[in-house]
Amino acid sequence: MLVAAGWVGRHDRPVGDRTVGEVTRVGVPPGGSVPEYLRAAAAELTALPSGGSPSGTYALVSFADYLAPDRLADTLAGVAVAEVVARAPLPGRQTEIVRLSAQRLPQDVMVGMAGMAGRKDREAADQRARAAAADDAELRRAYETGALVAAGEAAAYRAGCACAYAAVVRAAPDALRALAARPGVRAVDPAPELRRLDRTVVTPPLPEQRDVARPPADAGPTPLVGETSEAAPTATGSSPNVDRVGPAATPSGVATSPDASVGSRTVVEK
Questions:
Q1: Per-run averaged pLDDT (10 residues), the chain, 270 residues
Q2: Where is this region: Disordered (predicted)?
Q3: How many helices (H) and strands (E) does the chain have?
Q4: Disulfide: which of 42, 49, 85, 105 matches 73 by Cβ 3.0-4.6 Å?
Q5: d(C-alpha 102, C-alpha 73), whole Å
């Protein structure tokens, strides 16, 4: 019932600093209208008071296209960046969505991509080993497909791919509004209720999503990545200070496909 209540509107806010036991969700809900989400984000940004927190307001920035690391600094100039949301856009494949620390651009993103390339190499090797040991032909094909997808992701990240499609930033309202008018920026969705990045799930629309938020069509056998691959690393430190932009306790991998699993601006009690 609490989850359903959170989906009624996108303006639900925590009362006070009830960060323990809460998850703040920012983005477009699964099956939601992307044009409606973009309009709602723009309206909220326009209405955002120019005052507010001296340290600025968090916002989810969606890009119009996938960007390479060397384009991020110019696109996000003038705001403090906490993290970048990325996926390797392999044609006809659902690939893992990851959140990369990005306080320094493009250095931090390149480091994060190198780490992802290494993890995907290990994932591909694991899938190949399981394919070799599988007796069932269908199961073997699924493992082989998983190995191919993971290898493709590894190659993309190692090459510094155009994979970033969103970012979590923090800035004063006027700076956020200026960012929204910049070429290549699709939406700036302010989240003044956001307090802890480690308790936040973001679901920005993919650049190719124009009407409804849905995962891209996946060609070929479904890889058994969720069952067999190495888990995405998750930081376990304390939450970042509310007055500091920093993803120190933010998960570096938050999903296994572009299928958004949560609604926008939702706080779930646990």
A1: 34 46 86 96 94 83 98 96 96 93 95 98 98 96 96 98 98 96 97 89 94 78 43 31 35 38 42
A2: 198-270
A3: 7, 8
A4: 105
A5: 10
Contact 72, 167 (CB under 8 A): yes
Question: Scanning the structure block, which residue is given the tokens 């340290």?
Answer: 55
Q: Which of 58, 9, 43 is nearest to 166 (CA)?
A: 58
Q: What is the pLDDT at residue 4? A: 33
What would the DSSP string read from start to end of 25-48? EEEPPTT-BHHHHHHHHHHHHHHS
Q: H or E element: which one contains 228?
A: helix 225-228
**Which pLDDT score is estimated for 215?**
78
User: pTM, whole model, 2 decimals?
Assistant: 0.77
Beta bridge partners, 201, equal: 25
- What tokens appear for 203 in the block? 């679901």
Q: Cα separation of 174 and 45, whole Å?
A: 9
Sign of the dihedral defined by the CA atoms of residues 240, 108, 235, 67, in that order: positive
Give the CA angle between residues 116, 222, 253 to the nearest 5°.
25
- Residue 221: per-residue pLDDT: 56
190 forms bridges with which residues in the sheet? 59
Q: Rg (Cα) of the chain, in Å, rounded?
A: 19
